[in-house]
Each structure stands twice: as C-alpha cells, then as structure tokens.
Amino acid sequence: MGKPGNLCALPCLFSCLVSVLLAQRVKVLHEVTGYMGKEVVLPCEFAAATSDIKVSQVTWVKESGGRKQNVAVYHPDHGPSYPMEGNQSRIHFRTPSLGDATLVINPVRMADEATYTCEFATYPLGNEDGATNLIILANPTNTAEAKEVKVGNTEQPVAVCTSAHGKPPARITWQSTLNGNASVSQVKNADGTVTVISQYSMVPTKEANGQPITCVVHQQTLLQPESIPVTLSILYPPEVTITGYDDNWYLSRSDATLTCSAKGNPPPSQFIWSTTSGPLPASVEVQGDQIVVHKVDASVNTTFICQATNRVGQVSAEQVIFVRDQPAKRQSSSAGALVGSIVGGVLALVILGAVVVFVFYRRRPRANKGSYDPKMRVFGNGNAPPPVREFAELDRPLKAAPGRSQEEYNDYEEEEEEEEEREERPPPYGYAPRRLEDEEERYDQLGPMLRLGSSCHGYEFDDMESQHDGSIISKTAVYV
C-alpha cells in the first residue's frame, strides 16, 4: 500500500523541482521600498541556462486588491508599451530588452503600492516569472502651533501638533514642564497616507503665557525624531499700575508726569485718562500711556484714572495727587539722616561691646600658677585661699591652760599682733605665704596647748601624728 503512494508523490516532487529551477531563471527582488514622490526601481533579469531557450516577450503585471493589470510590455518587433499609463513619462523600462526588463517608476505614488510580476514568454519552456512586493512610504509634513485661548478655569487645548500625509502613521509626544494632557487622532487620506493630530490641553493661566513646550514626531521615514518648539499664547486682560508720583507735587512745579504701566496678552492698545472730579485739567497733556502736567496748579489736586484696553478686556487704576504749597524736604536728606543715625548707633554698640570685652579680660585673674591678687583674693589657678581666722580668737580661751605662764602668753600675743599688722599691709608683689620655719615655730609654741585636748575651732590638720600621751597633733596647720 505504501509503495503506490510513494510512486504518486514522485511526479509532484519532480514538478516542484522543475518549477524552482525555472523560477531561478528570473532574477527579481522579493520586496522593494519606495518613497512617495521619489523614483523607485524594480529589477528584473532573465538568465537562460542554454542558448536553446528563446524569449519572445516581456510583460510587467500589477496585482492589487485581487485585480490584475498590465503595466508595461516589451516586444522586439513592436517595442515597449505602457497600457496603464499610456506613455513612458512616469513608468518605463530602464533598458528595453528581452534579457533585462528592469522597470522604473518616477515619481512613485501611494497608489503604486502593489505586487508586480515580471513575466518572460519563452520557447519551448513557456512563461517564466518573478514577483516583487512594492511598499510605498510617505515622509510626513510636520507642523506645530499654539492655540490662542483666554484665561479660564476649564482645561482646553493650548497647542496642536500635526504630522500630515505620512505612511506609516507617525507617533507624536510632548515635552513640557507644565501640567497638561495630550490627545491623539488620525485621518486616513484618499491617497492612502495618514494624518496624525495631537493636541496639548491644560487649564490656561496667565503664568503659562509665553512658556515653551515641544512637539516630538517619530516616524519610520525620519532619520531621527523631529522636534518642533511651541510658545504658548494665553490671552488675559491688562494689569495696570500708575507710576511717577513722588508725593512732592507743589504749586508751579513744571513737567510732572504720570505713566500708565500696563501689561497683558495681547499688549494693551488703548489708554484713556480721566479724573474722579471730571474732565482733565487744562494744564494736563495726554501722550498715549503718559500724561504731562506742564505747570502744577490747584486743579491737579485730584485723583487720576488710567483705563487700559486689549482684546480681552478693560482694566483701570487710580492715583491720588496731593498738591503742596511749598516743595517738601528732600527725601534724600531725611533718608541720609536716617541712614547716618542707624550707622552711628551700630558703631556705638560695637565700641561699647569692645570696651566691655576689654574690661572683662583685664579683670580676669592671671594664669600664673601660685600668684595671688590681693583685691580679688584668688590664686592664679582660680582658687581662693582659705579664710584666715585670727589667732587672738583661738588663744584667748587658752590663757588658763596649765603649764603656761602669763609672761609667755603675753609675748605670744604681741607677736600675733605684729603678724596681723603685716597681713593687713598687702605685699608689693602678690601673696607672700608664710615660711615653713615660721609654721614649725608656731607649732612648737602651740604644741603644749593643743596636747591638752582643747577645742581649737577653725583649724584643719594634715599629716596627723600620735603623741605619747594619746593626743593627735599635726606638724603643718592650714588656717581656714
């Protein structure tokens, strides 16, 4: 059963191989891309394997939408003909011959997009052909512009970008720092191209007027994306102020001026001057957005009104004028006096601060270790010496101490009085501490009394030693 099937398949395989071999005789490109309005070339050549094959005619056939139509025909006896065009002005053979049937279309149209078959009538093989798909691309025309809109509270398109008559359709994006949204629509044209329209919408404000945004078009025929800048145009009524009044208009002053400063979109084109008290005084001359008072008089003592107008609306501003009998003091003098007083006050504060800092550092104790300031009663290390209590206060309760005569006590008391006088007189250079020998002599004198166990308030003892009678005594006493 399998063998008859294989035998049936052999003729089919042989037929396919013959078709491939025959098709290889016609040399064409499978696909050709053309740009609308430019020239496109469809190559086609016949390569005969042997000289026994004769070519009698060449024909190009266009197939589009299931419909076939002869485009160009070449016969060696009748020459070339172009049934679709009627002449060779737009479509023609590059070199009319039976071996080279290359076709040229210039300029190519979008309607030329189709499948083109190049056929060779041969003997004894019959017709041999090759097909080429012609794809037409269209380079779009890209534009962008701002749309004039009035200031409002509703989102509306403020700019539009158009990529017209392109194929394939373009892709449009926006570059902007504003808070807006983009919308896209497409229109298919009769010639097969596509027009893409993108609108940029936002809530229009006067702050957005004059702001730049950019339309960016991406399309296959462009070597790189095309950027088109747009400057927004938001219409808003004038903003008006009156300048020129210096609060020093006095009788008989000459050439005093007021200027109506107004901005808007579009710029104000009309200015109307008036006063709240009636028509303009006779001494006032109107010069567009400015009025000039040639000589100030009492009639100028009024309120001037400037009204500015553009396509969006009318806005006015007022300026009250006070006419003085005499010129006011020069503002520059009073201002100079004010500045001078401020500078003087600041300078005085700086000097005062410098004096305080100087006195403070002068009164600070010296850093020399061990030095003593008799006025401050502190040592150089910042510690005050312990207060010295008078020996007379300590010795009076010891007069009746056993083992001590009255004469010895009187000598001791005189010595203490001399010591007190020396302490009251400040030494010439800092604090003069007592010598160790004096302290040891004082210890020898007070020893008998201290061993009695008397209560000597006001002393602190270091280096305590135990005596033979059980009392505790220190060789060095520090007075507090």
Key phrases:
480 residues; alpha+beta; Immunoglobulin-like; 4 domains; six-stranded mixed β-sheet; five-stranded mixed β-sheet; 5 helices; 20% helix; elongated; disordered C terminus
Structure overview:
By secondary structure, the protein is α+β, with helices and mostly antiparallel strands. It folds into four domains: 20-137, Immunoglobulins (Immunoglobulin-like), CATH 2.60.40.10; 141-232, Immunoglobulin-like (Sandwich), CATH 2.60.40; 238-324, Immunoglobulins (Immunoglobulin-like), CATH 2.60.40.10; 378-479, no CATH class. The chain is built from five helices and 32 strands. A six-stranded mixed sheet has the order 2-11-10-5-6-7, with no helix packed on it. It has a five-stranded mixed sheet with strand order 13-20-22-25-24, with no helix packed on it. The chain has a four-stranded antiparallel sheet with strand order 12-14-17-16, with no helix packed on it. The longest helix has 33 residues, at 331-363. It is elongated, with a radius of gyration of 59 Å. The N and C termini lie far apart (139 Å).
